From TrEMBL, chain A:
Family per record: Belongs to the adaptor complexes small subunit family.
Gene: AP3S1
Gene3D superfamilies in alphabetical order: 3.30.450.60
Species annotation: Chrysochloris asiatica
A Pfam family: Clat_adaptor_s
CDD domains, A to Z: AP3_sigma
GO terms for cellular component: AP-3 adaptor complex; cytoplasmic vesicle membrane; Golgi apparatus
Biological processes, Gene Ontology terms: Golgi to vacuole transport; intracellular protein transport
Full protein name: AP-3 complex subunit sigma-1
Coiled-coil positions: none
Keyword Ligase: no
TrEMBL record, chain B:
PROSITE patterns, per the entry: GAE
Organism of derivation: Chrysochloris asiatica (Cape golden mole)
GO biological process: intracellular protein transport; vesicle-mediated transport
Taxonomic lineage: Eukaryota, Metazoa, Chordata, Craniata, Vertebrata
Family: Belongs to the adaptor complexes large subunit family.
Record keyword Protein transport present: yes
Protein name as catalogued: AP-1 complex subunit gamma
Amino acid sequence: MIKAILIFNNHGKPRLSKFYQPYSEDTQQQIIRETFHLVSKRDENVCNFLEGGLLIGGSDNKLIYRHYATLYFVFCVDSSESELGILDLIQVFVETLDKCFENVCELDLIFHVDKVHNILAEMVMGGMVLETNMNEIVTQIDAQNKLEKSEAGFAGAPARAVSAVKNMNLPEIPRNINIGDISIKVPNLPSFK
Amino acid sequence: MMTPSLKLQDLIEEIRGAKTQAQEREVIHKECAHIRASFRDGDPLHRHRQLAKLLYVHMLGYPAHFGQMECLKLIASPRFSDKRVGYLGAMLLLDERQDAHLLITNSIKNDLNQGIQPVQGLALCTLSTMGSAEMCRDLATEVEKLLLQPSPYVRKKAVLTAVHMIRKVPELSNIFLPPCAQLLHERHHGILLGTITLITELCERSPAALGHFRKVVPQLVQILRTLVTSGYSTEHSVSGVSDPFLQVQILRLLRILGRNHEESSETMNDLLAQVATNTETSRNAGNAVLFETVLTIMDIHSAAGLRVLAVNILGRFLLNSDKNIRYVALTSLLRLVQSDHSAVQRHRPTVVECLQEPDASLSRRALELSLALVNSSNVRAMTQELQGFLKSCPPDLRADCASGILLAAERFAPTKRWHIDTILRVLTTAGTHVRDDAVANLIQLIGGAQELHAYSVRRLYSALAEDISQQPLVQVAAWCIGEYGDLLLEGSCEEIEPLQVEEEEVLALLEKVLQSHMSLPATRGYAFTALMKLSTRFHGDNNRIRQVVSIYGSCLDVELQQRAVEYNTLFRKYDHMRAAVLEKMPLVERDGPLVIEEAEESKEAQLSEATPIPTEPQTSKLLDLLDLLDDDTEDAQHLAPRDPSPEGALGHLLNLPCHPPALYQTLPPIPNLQVFEREGLQLNLSFVRPSEIPALLLITATATNSSGSDVTHFVCQAAVPKSFQLQLQAPSGDTVPAQGGLPITQLLRILNPNKAPLRLKLRLTYNHFGQSVQEIFEVNNLPLETWQ
């Protein structure tokens, strides 16, 4: 089973942390620090597997990690998982993120960490692999996002209006329309009671 | 009116804008105060946004427990966006250790039943991540219902939730076992993946389930075959391999089902061969499947040809340029080394090469595997490789490597000399990383190898002269020099280059160890005692040693000071006993109490046959005593130790001590014997034969005084025939006050390995009534039980 999934940057700042076993908050932060410490020491051309640190369960557990530019993706697993399989899983996860965010970069993960959680929840559940078909996952995420948007109701109306206006393709309107003095004869309209 | 709350993105911007840690803390504290206020006011519109912000700062490590109740409220809300954040919050903030977590059970139940798929999905996800045992029990029926739902999305999640529930509450296996058969017929890969996981979990927990599921082996084989032979499909393929995740899971389940079961193994054989030969190995996905296949082949009752194929695949992977492949190959070989030792041995050269890897993970695996591959035929070569590795390996592997080499040496040493050499080399290279008992083991080993004393002491002396920083080495060397210092001075030894050593050099070296700041207190103790022993081994005058001893009488280290004072006294007042006290030590039993270091503390004087030591006349009189018993001729060995044969020692090692250390259980008591009486002074002997050690006889000599005058300067000495071993412990005193005052007791230990008839001669000297008395007599009428 997968014990934890951690994403942090080259300086150790956490970008996503999901634990599939109960750990106290303090322990969680310590695990993040310890994992960063172990993983950052690694060279560029060594294998992607490490013995787990003491806090996460010692040598029974492994850290399987991939380093993409500024981010480390670390999966902490126990001995029942296939190491090469988890490597592939990380790859599928990143590719899915890429598809959902369109050329994902670290900033996307920073500002949309809740969306990343939702995507991850479609792939790994309770420490076990749930779905690895990218299309399925993306379809599901889209459906959920639509459901959220449709629900926004009145509270979302201003936001929707703003985004509608932003997306409108207006032709250039001349700023100063100089209309001469127009005297329009207004008919005497009956007053409404 | 309060300011509109920040959006999550805006908060993140602000936090990132903070230049220092303190600034960041400030921003976050301010925002948390807002969030807390908002929670208190109960604003439903923005609650999800507030919680999202709280979850963000929680990830950064700030306390967020006050959001737990809000998660509950959000989950209970009808809106999807609320539920989404609420459930995420529940997964991140709540766990089974807080009582609050039970409160969401009802909400989950409602959400599971209300039929909107994304909501059901959320509920299942949360349940499988943080569901406690109570929650699982309450919601088991709901989850079971969802297993039969038409929607594959919900079903696949329900299946995995079932796995989690079984882990928390094993009794629920009964509910989730029946649906498995039907679920296996699904086409949807997600459901299949979950089902295989579920079946695997069930089989691992219960042998009954294992038997039950053996009948689905043909079905599993079929599914796998379809996956392997189907053409390229974009749906689930990863770099050209169709759904490698599902393939790996099926292979793992097949492994569990086929283990120890002929029939199932047979069904799988063809398929495994097919997978092993047809899988594309150019990309990681294919290799993952191949590895799993190899492990399955080795674990079940597969055909011999198939096993050979599997091990060869592993061997090929060992040579692969991809480090990940090599790592997994080493790990797999380690798993196989117990069951298929000879097959793995074939790859020993490659494994040893992997020791040189710069990658720490790989070299660690290679080390474990190399140690497992050492056997009696390759021990010399392997030890050499491992010692080479020890010199250059990363520090965290040093301890493991050193103890691994020592263990291998113990198990497979071809000769004692090789063994001593190996331990010596390990101590020199990695002395600080060896285990504590390595010193004791080496001393015991050297002590037992009598023919190698000269060799050992020379090697150790040279090593010590070069480097006095490695503490275990220094300790052993000091001990050896102290014991066998006389052998060191004799110039020649065939096995080693001639080494001319002067007494002064040796003393200087030991003093250097004593004074060095690198020496631990224990080491200094060793060196000090060694110096003292040399006072009898060396023939020169002892002024230098006396000087050192008296200086250390005021040493700050209490242990050393005590010894110095004792030794000083030995020089001054008990010089006649010094030779006897500092005699060569007998061999110590492996499991026995560690008498190695400071036997002198108990002042055991061993009076066995020894090469004549030029000491005071007192001792020579003792020798006369021994001569009187000469009629019992048996060629006595120098030390008469109980030298255990190598097999015996190994037997000792391999047999974990199982007999309780019940010492001194006695047979029916042997009657006491009065052996001497003169003018009110009586000497009585009482005998004890512990049943633990049949050859041992303990005699307590008690001197009592019923006369009117004190007996002073009482000394009792004893002698036995050569085949016996006698140890005399220090008497309780040397004065027996008059009129039945406190008697003197003294313990004699006699070892009689040959069960020869015991003869005992005693010599008493004392002052009584103003006269000095000396009596020598043989003890008659020794009871038969003392030696039979």
